[in-house]
Design brief:
disordered N terminus
Length: 380
């Protein structure tokens, strides 16, 4: 703080001070990462300690290597944005476009109301659509109410593809507990992450164990970790608690880039995933081990291109357990391919119903179906 004041007295601009402070912080994080990596390499023979130290180093280096760049928007558009916001009762300044690694645009600005009133930040979204010709939304962690004092606001450009989801769940037998847990998370980088964690067995214990994994994964994703780092962290944390009698948990994760229309299907001991497209259904299988078995995370990652009208169908193994025979995945692909409903929620329920029909409507295990539908918002 003292150095900050001295710098101000010396005539250094506040923005420069912030820049120097940011560079200093990143430098310290980078040095800390190097320290953890050296310690990990030093204790290489002590496998458990080494793995966790190197994992921390990876996470810290990932934080440092985030690539962001910013630029001012076109002057004419900026003036038009200021004018239209003023007419809507809002004064704006410091308008900046921020771009992430995958090119997703975020618009940052400062705003306040003209009088002693409060206005929803959605007013600015309407102006952005009118001036820039693109849809924006407010991230969950951002300010949503404009007051009579200048505050910072963030708006993120809507991705090209709109994602709709639906889920259907049943517990084993007549149990009201389902040992599966799931998440659907919309990320600020233009991606949507969906995951199913399947606890060993069924009932309360399986539910509690899969919930630990899904909550850890959700926290990592919300913190901005990439998939590999998140899986490493979750696996390490879960293994550290395995002495408390925790059983392995399967993890099925789909990461969809809603701008590029790309799917990354990540599996750790999970059941097959299906991509439904017009009159075909593709199967993605895996032979990996669940979370909590090996200290070094074991997973498969398959990348697929998605198109307008495609559906990604994720299931827990309970869905396949009802189907007789050996080629269960192929039979499920045929079932999914025959479904004509378009809404993801209705599709999930229909898959559940058809699976149960094979076992006289009695679930032989916990069952979860998660359907993600991808729809192109660009004009055709």
């Amino acid at each position: 703080m003292q150095n900050y004041k001295i710098a101000e007295r010396c005539g250094v601009m506040k923005e420069d001070i912030k820049k120097y402070a940011l560079e200093y912080t990143f430098g310290k994080i980078e040095e800390t990462a190097k320290t953890f990596r050296r310690l990990g390499e030093t204790y290489y023979e002590t496998t458990g300690i080494s793995g966790q130290l190197l994992l921390v180093a990876d996470v810290l280096e990932e934080c440092v290597n985030v690539n962001l760049y910013s630029e001012d928007i076109d002057k004419d558009k900026a003036r038009e944005l200021v004018r239209k916001c003023f007419l809507a009762g809002v004064r704006v300044k410091n308008i900046t476009m921020i771009y992430g690694e995958n090119g997703v645009a975020q618009l940052a600005l400062s705003a306040r109301t003209l009088g002693k009133t409060c206005i929803s930040a959605r007013k600015i979204i309407m102006v952005l659509k009118e001036v820039l010709g693109q849809d924006y939304y407010i991230p969950g962690s951002a300010e949503t109410l404009i007051t009579d004092e200048f505050r910072h606001y963030l708006f993120i450009r809507e991705a090209r593809f709109k994602m709709l989801s639906g889920v259907a769940r049943r517990g084993k037998g007549t149990s009201r507990f389902n040992g599966d847990n799931f998440l659907i998370s919309r990320l600020e980088c233009g991606k949507t992450t969906a995951a199913i964690a399947d606890g060993m067995g069924s009932g309360k214990k399986a539910f509690a164990e899969s919930r630990i994994v899904i909550e850890l994964m959700e926290n990592c994703i919300e913190a901005g970790f990439k998939e590999k780092a998140a899986l490493d962290l979750v696996n390490a944390a879960y293994i550290s608690g395995s002495g408390k009698g925790l059983n392995p948990v399967t993890m099925d994760m789909s990461v969809i880039d809603c701008d590029a229309g790309m799917l990354s299907c990540i599996k750790m001991g999970a059941a097959a995933t299906f991509i439904k497209r017009e009159n075909m259904c593709e199967i993605i299988k895996s032979t990996t081990l669940p979370i909590g078995v090996l200290e070094k995370v074991d997973f498969d990652c398959v990348t697929k291109k998605l198109y307008d009208g495609d559906y990604v169908v994720m299931i827990s193994d309970g869905i396949l357990d009802n189907i007789p025979g050996v080629e269960k995945e192929e039979k499920m692909a045929s079932i999914i391919n025959e479904i004509s409903v378009k809404k993801p929620a209705a599709m999930a329920e229909e898959i559940m119903r058809k699976s149960l029909k094979y076992n006289n409507d009695k679930p032989s295990d916990d069952m979860t179906v998660l359907v993600l539908g991808l729809f192109d918002t660009y004009e055709k």
